[in-house]
Amino acid sequence: LKEGRIGGSLTSSGAKSVFQQCINVKAKATNPSKTKIKDAGVFGFVSDEQAGASVIANNPDFRSDAGQFAQVDWIEPGEDVPIDFIFVGTFSKKDVDKGDLPELTFKGIKAISYPGGARFVELSPCELDSLSDECDAVSDEDRGALKSKSMAGLKSMQ
């Protein structure tokens, strides 16, 4: 999400009629707790009202809140706290006039923090392959835990 790309292949035939653009959103939020919120997932609807379409690729028909489409790194405690996040807007090429993006409408936007945070974080080489050379600095105990974790995942896939 933070890399400015949606899932799926951008080289498919459907991508030829689609224009994607990273959108940097600046907004204000309320955090009623006394502590900073880390890695809050952003959910809701974002639309191009003129085209009558969602700009969130995984929710083209507005049938549901299609899931997290962005992430806020930190939300400080208080009211009217400035935040910013980036998401990838997906537009029909025919609706984007001369490179200018249409005015967007945001509805039902909420940021949700999950216990432990870190929902979308980059996996370390050791999490991808517990036997990789990059894991040399990892203790044998940690290596064993990583290995059993990945083996448990493999067993559940059979």
Structure description:
The structure is a single chain. With 158 residues, the chain is mainly beta. The chain has helices spanning 125-128, 140-157, and strands at residues 18-31, 37-48, 53-54, 70-75, 78-92, 104-112. The strands form 2 sheets. Strands 2, 3, 4 and 6 form a 4-stranded antiparallel beta sheet that branches. It has a two-stranded antiparallel ribbon with strand order 1-5. A hairpin with a 4-residue loop joins strand 2 (37-48) and strand 3. The radius of gyration is 20 Å and the shape is extended. The chain starts with 17 loop residues before the first strand and ends with a helix.
Q: Tell me the structural class.
A: mainly beta
Our count of helices gives 2
Mean pLDDT: 75
Biggest sheet statistics = 4 strands, antiparallel
Shape: extended
Helix content: 10-25%
Strand content: 35-45%
Rg from alpha-carbon coordinates: 20 Å
Q: Number of DSSP strands? A: 6
Q: Report how far apart the termini are.
A: 29 Å
Question: Could you give a short description of this structure?
Answer:
This protein is mostly beta strands and about 160 residues long.
